[in-house]
């Protein structure tokens, strides 16, 4: 069964106990929480830094598109699928 992708009008926030943290040993960002440690690449870090609990996913995509000088349509599917995966892992909630 294929999961539904997070709608663009969703406002995402971190689940309780989950945080984005810079791991100085690995010199990269990680998602950290009870029984959770996910190392992020540059793209994942950029996405997670934009998750503020206030903005709709479409606004997050727009900001990322401006930051990386790309058309929002180019990154919409990838960002939505990334966020969907983190909702399924109970890292993000909508």
General description of the model:
The protein is an alpha+beta fold. It is 39% helix and 20% strand. The model has no long low-confidence stretch (mean pLDDT 94).
Low-confidence stretches at least 5 residues in length (pLDDT < 50)?
none
Strand order of the largest sheet: 2-3-4
**Number of spatially distinct domains:** 1
- Alpha carbon gyration radius: 13 Å
Q: What count of helical segments does DSSP give? A: 3
**In angstroms, what separates the terminal alpha carbons?**
21 Å
Biggest β-sheet, characterized? 3 strands, antiparallel
State the CATH architecture: Orthogonal Bundle
The CATH class is: Mainly Alpha
Chain-averaged pLDDT: 94
Instruction: Please give the share of residues in helix.
Output: 25-40%
- Shape descriptor reads globular
Strand content: 15-25%
What is the H level of CATH, i.e. the homologous superfamily? Coenzyme PQQ synthesis protein D (PqqD)
Strands, total number: 5
List SSEs in N-to-C order: EEEEHHHE
CATH topology, what is it called? Arc Repressor Mutant, subunit A
**Structural class, please?**
alpha+beta
